[in-house]
Amino acid sequence: MKAYDLIVVGGGPAGLAAAVEARKDGVEDILVLERDRELGGILQQCIHNGFGLHVFKEELTGPEYAERFIDELKELGIEYRLDTMVLDINDERIIHAISKAEGFVTLEAKAIILAMGCRERTRGALAIPGYRPAGIFTAGTAQRYLNMEGYMVGKKVLILGSGDIGLIMARRMTLEGAKVLGCVELMPFSGGLTRNIVQCLNDYDIPLMLSHTVTDIQGKDRVQGVTVMKVDENRQPISGTEIQFDVDTLLLSVGLIPENELSKGAGVQLDMRTRGAIVNESMETSVPGIFACGNVLHVHDLVDWVTDESRRAGKFAAKFIKESEIIEETSIETVPGQGIGYIVPQRVRPSQVNQVLELFMRVRDIYVGQTIVVRVDGKEVQAKRRGHMAPGEMERVKVPVSLFDGPGVKKITIDVEDR
Do residues 291 and 277 touch, judged by C-beta distance below 8 A? Predict the structure, then answer.
């Protein structure tokens, strides 16, 4: 069994940023484990631009953004292993993994950073009637085939769901010569960034059908057609609203799920709202010495926010390794109130916050001109008006530690209010 100071599970943007930050903070013995054949994670198939505006102050493609961190990782001499699948992690920070090069290995770490990313919901999660023909792909799978493997997945396309990958693939398929007939969304609002709706749908005259869903898929060997129906306020199909689309391909962009099977095995407590770990201000989970960041923690819409969050995880993992002590301090709970879906981090130790606490959250609906109100044990301490908020765009709130660092404080509540 080989021992390391820090092991990072996942070599995508979160894992790379965390590993680099930990090395800069003085951790020498670091290992990054990546199950794919290259570092960079999902960014390697995101060949469009729009990345890095916040972190690097310039516009990069996904592979270019990843390459910045891959180069830095190599320059710092951080060890990494590709084609390595982690099988399990326990609460004593023992890792079992397997690879073609080394076979079955057992590793031990003083600290572990979980950065496994997320996976897409598949057709099986939707229970759409019909046969199982070829031509049904998740949007991310189609993106991988097209951008990295060089396969054209279809010529006449319909997209179910309006997540960012689905919106981006609507444009990508169009640019490759396919006809995208529309993007169908169950909810009355899009699940993607506004800029992607404009640049990927509106600019190419691709219709966005809100409050609609797919109710039938025709075809046995290959998709031959798809039936779409309007839904009511309870998201149930409305009889008589059927629309038939003659397509050979259906792309699914119906949500992302954090990859937390390893987290569960390690005894990490999960948040049912985010489907990721419950963490404190240091990105530390309920298991001491195990940290989480990126899409395995909660699904982000910008990789820049993943980088900021992961740097924090790397910094505090380094602090944990160097100090080798568990800080015993009562945590303050962050509570999503009216209009807020979730808040990360879920626990806060005031003594570990450097002047300002940064909270990430998503709203439940579209709000225009509403106010985000922060309360500490019921007392309002901060209120900021926002011009526009939507579930597809993450919100950030910064709260000075002086506003909640006091004896007996139990919770920080955030609400959306009409003022």
Answer: no
